Amino acid sequence: MFRKILIANRGEIALRVICACKELGIRTVAVYSEADRHSLHVRFADEAVCIGPAKSARSYLDIPAVISAAEVTGADAIHPGYGFLSENADFAEVCEISNIRFIGPPPDVTRLMGVKDKARAAMAHAGVPTLPGSEGVVASAEEALSIAGGIGYPVIIKASAGGGGRGMRIVREPADLPPLFTQAQQEALASFSSPDVYLEKYLPAPRHIEFQVLADNHGRVEVFCERECSIQRRHQKLIEESPSPRVTPELRLEIASKLAEAMRAVGYTNAGTVEFLMDEEGRLYFIEVNARIQVEHPITEIVTGIDLVKGQLLLAAGERMPAVVPQSPLAPRGHAIECRINAENPETFAPSPGRITAFNLPGGPGVRVDTAAHTDCVIPPYYDSLIAKLITSGRSRAEAIARMNRALEMFVVEGIHTSIPLHQRILADPDFQAGCFDTTFVNRFLRENQRNAASKA
Ligand code: ADP
């Protein structure tokens, strides 16, 4: 097992990794930017190294600075958290060359998963269902027109190196395709330094459903009960839950066995998430693999009883699967929901950095909060707006929702705006309560709210 782990991240996920290390008796090194000097991850790590100024490009994304911090402190492994360097295969390679274990999949696997048309082809090859689309990169608008004609409109043009919802264009009819194709290529080039795009059938109102995977270095893969992440705005998830109200035990089992096979075939190790879209008939189609731990991992921990971050550390150290996951984590025990509490205006979604003047965490049965925020802390404007994850669980979905309602009410954050009021409104919606929603839910919900406000005025 590792003696000392450096955590190349900040905020709640850095603290989350520190928790796992403490439980395993592993020493920890925090790295921080000048803006994060007083952060809790700095306080609770055994050692801390300042790696640069506030801007992430010069601190949390600065590979030589992170590697030097690991070398100076004698860390034998690095946990990258999510975001920042977590899916950077070059970084993982530099770690290995520097004799520091990167806690994640091998660099070549991360690289393959990062080229989305290749990941799609690899999954399809292993029998995982994918949407009809192009075979690999599409070179020209003419070629795209001919493929789209075969699939049928609407289609979506996506960047091969894409992420964060950028570089995507929805095409509803052939006449729109050539200009949108050029735009997608240009945006892909500007955002990801590669103009490569591919084509997929567009589902107008899908559900977003994903499967957590853990894989050891000895060929064993475990697939966990799914997460439903359809409550999203601009492709950013707001509320996640497990299990999905729409996935049957039969479908779960069928996808899990195909996925285990596929992940083994690509040589996947450590933790990852495989994302799917569900069509109106309830069929699932692969869209992408996230080769890291995800924000929403706690709901899976709750319904399966497996500590995923400890699992990452044990697997990276070479442990075999039965020591990490003793029995199949496919059948959920109860229900869990996560609300992402962001520092933002719940009406306009404008970021709301600043000092938190009062802070009360909810507690009681079935409540977990992952956060690095506290009274008098300053939320800096430089990073992601996520300040806390509020997770509730219960024997049923209804009990988890009831607990979320009272936990949101007892979660006090003063001095900055947060998304708490938005969550309260969504949870009160009858369609949400009935489990009837897809990825278009939040937009529709916000439009209706606006209309109601206007008609009252
Ligand atoms: P990124 O890596 O940029 O996040 P994804 O492939 O994960 O890209 O897609 C992000 C989101 O875009 C999905 O959650 C979904 O809402 C939407 N999307 C992607 N592909 C399709 C599709 N074929 N049909 C409908 N929506 C899609």
Quick summary of this structure?
With 457 residues, the protein is of the alpha+beta class. Helices cover 36% and strands 24% of the residues.
Would you kindly provide a written description of the structure presented here, covering whatever features stand out?
The chain has 457 residues and is an alpha+beta fold. It folds into 3 domains: 100 residues, Rossmann fold; 70 residues, Dna Ligase, domain 1 (2-Layer Sandwich); 250 residues, ATP-grasp fold, B domain (D-amino Acid Aminotransferase, Chain A, domain 1). It has 16 helices and 21 strands. Strands 9, 10, 11, 12, 13, 14, 15, 18 and 20 form a 9-stranded antiparallel beta sheet that branches. It has a 5-stranded parallel beta sheet with strand order 3-2-1-4-5. A 3-stranded antiparallel beta sheet has the order 7-6-8, covered by helices on one side. β9 and β10 form a beta hairpin. The model has no long low-confidence stretch (mean pLDDT 97). The chain binds adenosine-5'-diphosphate (ADP). Adenosine-5'-diphosphate binds next to β13 and β14. The site of adenosine-5'-diphosphate has 17 residues, from β13 and β14.
Write the layout of secondary structure elements.
Elements: E1 4-7, H1 11-24, E2 27-33, H2 40-44, E3 47-52, H3 63-73, E4 77-79, H4 89-97, E5 101-102, H5 107-114, H6 116-125, H7 141-151, E6 155-159, E7 169-171, H8 177-192, E8 197-201, E9 207-215, E10 221-223, E11 227-233, E12 236-242, H9 249-265, E13 270-278, E14 284-290, H10 297-304, H11 308-316, H12 321-324, E15 335-342, E16 354-355, E17 358-360, E18 367-371, E19 378-379, E20 386-394, H13 397-410, E21 412-414, H14 420-427, H15 430-434, H16 441-456
Parallel strand pairs: 1-2, 1-4, 2-3, 4-5
Antiparallel strand pairs: 6-7, 6-8, 9-10, 9-11, 9-13, 11-12, 12-15, 13-14, 15-20, 16-19, 17-21, 18-20
Helix pairs in contact: 4-5, 7-8, 13-14
The structure holds adenosine-5'-diphosphate.
